Please model this.
Amino acid sequence: MALRTSPEVGGMGHSIKRKEDPRFIRGKGTYVDDVQLPGMLYLDIVRSPHAHAKIVKIDSAKALATPGVLAVITGQDLAKYNLHWMPTLMSDTQMVLPVEKVMYQAQEVAAVLATSRYAAADGAAVVEVEYDPLPVVVDPHKALLPGAPVLRTDKKDKKDNHIWHWEWGDRAATDRAIAEADVTVKQDIYLPRIHVASIETCGCIAHFDKVDGKLTVWMTTQAPHAIRTVFAMVTGLPEQNIRIISPDLGGGFGNKVPVYPGYVVATAASLVIGRPVKWIESRSENLISTGFARDYHMKGELALTNEGRILALRVQMLSDQGAFYADAQPSKFRAGLFHVVTGSYDYPAAHVQCRGAYTNKAPGGVAYRCSFRITEAS
Model:
């Protein structure tokens, strides 16, 4: 009798049956908003209609009179615990809730804590904030001009909106080749700001147990270990007392790597009251305030012979970082443009120069779909 054999499965050309699908198509996935904890409270966020403005006054009276609303949290409240600023993964600092001014449209201004999600939203709708508008800068080129309004006035002795300047390659040889070339070709390219718009928006449930001093956070994050480190820095808790749970994730693509203020406010609220706090952002909030990708102004120059041989490539890039330098990973990945931009060609000389500037926009720095320089270089 002939033995029945099956072809070996593996390598190119062989399909592997997916094992993740059955529970999802049966509605058995577990996303952050599916998690329900006893005694859980809900958070909603008040956002700024201005791109740059002083905060004159926040009036919470109407919100506190709304049925179900327990508290309105402001930057002044967080400042008592030194939680109104947080570190970013790129050694900058970012407002959790502002004390003096807002830096971009839809920035978090205050948070409402309530017994239901709807009560929290009702309370947030009636928080009254008085603003005094300030000059707005949304063009990174103008942000770097002499006399431009300095945006990061929180930084001591900061006199401009320049963040970083990186170079890679042989500048002298590249400049010489372009100056002496038979033909030069130049092109300006703007790679606009884009948003991930994943199926699931950002959110978290923070639960601090006052008995054992441990914090558990269910969170829409792609980087739980980095988040834990930042949370330890912000809260003062040791890392071993913090557990970050990333359950099923409805799309990430880089947008769910940063630490967002909503995460920190929900966690701060749980730390103070000792009850679980859930924050789930709306689609509109997700699109206007969470991490954007790219927003690069680039200039490419080629030096060539009359016969068409490439002699040198020079690239300059200006990155619009928004109000805070909050890249979603701790490396100079834009400088990595150099290692890709020359492609498969034999360039005798090449040079890349990258700069970053603050503007009155939501922070960027997401490597959309793990691009990490590939798209911009191409």
The first helix runs from residue 21 to 25. Residues 303 and 309 are 8 Å apart (CA to CA). The radius of gyration is 25 Å. The mean pLDDT is 92.
